[in-house]
Amino acid sequence: MVSRIGCLIGVIFLAGIVLGGAMDTAVSGSVPDDAAVLAAARQYLDAEVKKDYPRVYACLSPSSAYCAANSYEKYRKEAVSSPTSVTDYRIIKVTYIAENDDREKYPRVEKIAEVEVECVLSYLDTGKSSEVNIGLIFVKEGGKWYKS
Questions:
Q1: pLDDT tens for each residue of the chain, 148 residues long
Q2: In the chain, where are the structural domains located?
Q3: What span, in angstroms and rounded, lies between the C-alpha atoms of 56 and 61?
Q4: Which fold has domain 29-147?
């Protein structure tokens, strides 16, 4: 009797792991999209940490209001003069991936995703730093993921 209960608990536990993993994928998106969003987040954050301004700007959504209003030169001038910078990060997870439900307002955006990140922000003006947890938004345009 005890071994049957142990087996049943084991089967329920394994089913929970399998179904839980399937549910996570269903909520966050497909596995290829998860991997692509994570790669885009790493590329963006690595560029931020290295202060690689051309790469940071290239990671930004081409259809974003920011890029429409700011040339690379303007962005670079603001970034260089900013007293705040990302000096380290740790990606926690892809929080969600969703279809764009407002194609009229955002016609080039196919999907929207959020990536939870722990960032270390350093403040040049005070010499201090802080760790913040933030949800970064990414959008998929033309099959590629960009920082929103």
A1: 444 334 333 333 333 333 344 334 334 456 799 999 999 999 999 999 999 999 999 999 999 999 999 999 999 999 999 999 999 999 999 999 999 999 999 999 999 999 999 999 999 999 999 999 999 999 999 999 999 9
A2: 29-147
A3: 11
A4: Nuclear Transport Factor 2; Chain: A, (3.10.450)
